[in-house]
Queue: 2 jobs
Job 1
Amino acid sequence: MNTNNLITDISFLYELSLSVGQSLDKKENCKNFLQTLMSRKNLEFGGVWLYNYNIPYSSKTTGYTAIYSHPQIKLDKIDIEDSFFLDHCFENQDSFSIPLTLEACKAIGFKKKETGVITCYKLQNLGFLVLYSSVHDKIWNRIEQRKLKNVIDKFAVSIKACLFHEKSILDLITISKTQKELEKAKKEAEEANELKSAFLSNISHEFRTPINAIIGFSNLLADSLIDKSKHKDFIQNILNSSSKLMKMVNNLLYVSKMDSNQLNFTLEYFNINETIREVKAHLKTQISNKPQVDFRLVFPRNSEELQIKSDRDKLIQILENLADNAIKFTKTGKIELGYYIDDNSTSIFYIRDTGIGISKEKQAHIFDVFRQLDYEANRKFEGSGLGLTLCKKLIHLLDGEIWFDSEENIGSNFYFRLSGTGSVKMDLLNKITSKSSDNLSTIEDLKYSEKNILIAEDVRSNFNYLNAIIELTDATVIWAKNGKDAIQICDDNNPKIDLVLMDIRMPEVDGIEAIKQIKNNNKSIPVVVQTAYAIDNEREECLNAGADQFITKPIDPRKLIKILQEYL
């Protein structure tokens, strides 16, 4: 090697060394190094690829990413897969220089199938560097490749420093972000804990209040010194408190079951107007306690025969919870419960009131579990805070949606549909007048003096209750204290059994097996299941066993009479 070439090489390597590590930004570092190298070697392309697992917070664990290339247009893609071609070329050597082939183009992601020469260097265990020249005979021999070895190693060390710096910055950002997220989560957890504590304190009060009334008035009924003329009021108080307690228990169970995805639904056709009238009948006591509130049912014209396919019991529960709230928060004025048919022939149910309304800051949270308008010990309104949460969950279970609009001290409108989407809005109730279609139907007295009804029930008090209701119809009641006796009585069929009220949890033979055997021997006998376990989705199991109908404890006399009317 002559002196001039040696001086030239030393000058080039010195300049190239100075370009290494001028920046802790990996792209800027690559740019300084590659542009110096390319300009002195008359190269047309240079690029740096790193293994993805070396790049901080990369979502990829295999393959390579081009972190810098010049000019960029030469690359078809910056992400390339692990390459057998490159592995083979780097086998037992840190660099190689070869003609550019189609295989090489594919391996390094070149956009065009070009000719020329590529020279590649390993960047220690980080990745590799590619240099390209279109001159066909510009293959670097091993001596030329080794000249750059030390500088390339220093460049690799500088890339490591850049990656370490980048990771440190990202770690700090992540720590800061995580800290903020933790602080947010802590705040939300503390708020949730406060809400839960307030809920538990409140629910304890809400449970004890009706229980206290039930026990208290029951004791008064048993006291022989109390004037019997007051017994009627005592009984009404017991009934009202029992109904309130049952609603709270059902709401708690339903929310719990839905959160654990254990609640199913049954779709069937039923009459809408009749269902809404039944809701009003259930609310009779609450409505009578608000004489200054005009409670109306509003139906579309010519809708008496209109039916909907959904879960009737869950629709009733949704409407009752929404109506309970409207009655609770409305001191004077009007409440409307009804529905209308939208342009898509979908029933839009609504409950509108002239109550206290909901403030803007509380509107975003009213469907959250444990949320209530007030939590203080001296709060004005009773309730568990589960009603709206349950409504939303049930409506979503039925593939529907719920929405509302409200104005503080003006009133609230709640709407929902049981399928489909598309919110609508009406003016608040006290700003308009509307016509009522409130025609509450009554059930006629039924007489079944020639009918025989079998009650399969192992608990005496439950049998006595059902017997007391059925006696009003003059039907003959037969008692089976377990499933085995029920099967035998139906097999004998003497006297002829016209209907069976079947409990599920019984000794000897349970209700499910009893239904199967009764229906196997005599399909014509109607079997109505009466159980306290409806929340556990036994309805489908009972119907599959052959049951004709299903009624849930505590049994509403009106529902039982309606079933008797249907089957007798």
Job 2
Amino acid sequence: MKMRTPEILLTADKTVMINYRLTCLGGFVACVPRKSLPVQFAKLMEKRLFLPAPTNENGEAELANLFLRKVETTLLESGFDVVVCDSAYLDKFNAKVYGISTIDPFGVGPATSTMVGLSGGKEPFNKFYFEELIRKIRRERPDSIIMVGGPGVWQFDVLDGKQEELGIDCIVEGEVEEIAQDLVKKALEGKVPKKVVGPPAAHMAGIRKPSLWGMVQIGRGCDRGCSFCDPGMRNFAWRPMEEVLKDARINASSRYVGSITLLAEDELRYGNKSGDWTPCGKIVDLIEEVKKLGKPVSPTHANISSVVSAPEVVREYARAVGLTSDNFSAFQVGLETGSPRLMKIYMKGKTLPYDPESWPEVAKKGFEVMVKNHIFPLATLIAGLPEETGEDVQKTINLVKDLRRYPSLIMPLFFVPLGRLKENKGFLQKNSLADIYKDLYITCFEHTSYWGRKFTSWGGKSLPLIAQWVLHVGTMLAFDYFKALKERGNSSSIWWSFLKENALFLISKLFSSQKLRVG
């Protein structure tokens, strides 16, 4: 095939354009430190997980990251010659401008920094592949303009000098719809600012071609105002149903899309005005319309307070999606802490319409409502918030123990300075792993390994093998690691644990027959 020379080529590294056969949660494997795994297993993992995106005869990606698709639409509407391709096919093109989307370019996001910290600082997959991609473009296309955007670009502010080190011409932060046309015109002339920040868009772009995991943006931003959260700093808005359905139809037409994933910070509040904390139920109407396209709907994020304030909406949501005891799904939720004091200081909006003081009870009620409706919480905690005391951590431990009876996964993440807390020190900068934090991690991983094993036997056929392995083996290894650290003061070799847990995993796959029963 003759090399094409588009004006703009949009791409992303292997951890962003990850194997479409995984669920969207499979993307978290990009956070794993590369050299923390046995060499042969790591090679197999890379080979199976980081496959090139399905690509047509012209070298164009049949599936791409949602952010790339939205930039593609914006530029096509402005009349530019744009191509989206997988990074494995860069050699087929010689573009004037390269636009790179990134999620966690240097591995300092909460999930990756936690795994990196626990591994002793080993380089994660996402950092390795991002830097490899940028260096390849700069080496092979020295005269081209490289621009980097996406939700991970805040890391260039944290790691001063990385932009110059990698030879990146421009960092694009914020929403691109209002600035893309002028910015690309300047780039084609070889004149771009070092950094540009896009304002909130008057109209959110849709997609023209299928997106990874059938992902469709239904809203943008959050109005709860948590101090540590960047999404909370953006404009809060919902897309009209007809625009969402247009994108959903494009995804439903693709043979590579198994389900339609509706993306928002809290999808239960779809259609609500800012400050209306109780879900209005329009999300159910949306799901009913999306289902008519012939593909199932996959949940993403929800807020625990929204769940508690509208249990009838959750019930109708589960009915519309088609959830049962044999067909369960999950919400990603922020549990954050068990301390009402910290909730009041840093995220009192997260508890609305309830008071911060009632957060532990709200959390327990939220888990109960979700589980009764066959929706399991995939919850994250924040370890090391500014001003966090041992008493605060103990309250979080107590809450996790109270939640043990609810099928769920709970993952504690290190605090990373973001949002209005970006001037603070991160968890790894200010804390050694004190015993109280070891207790927290042991408690969380004990909870997660217990339910993770049950999930793989209940829903093993519906989960990708790597997801089953992470749930069954990975969480138990983390539990063993912290237990060893706490009891013996060191993290001596866990090879025996690795072999033991893999053996148990294989046994569970051979003999699993237990069915899920939820109250």
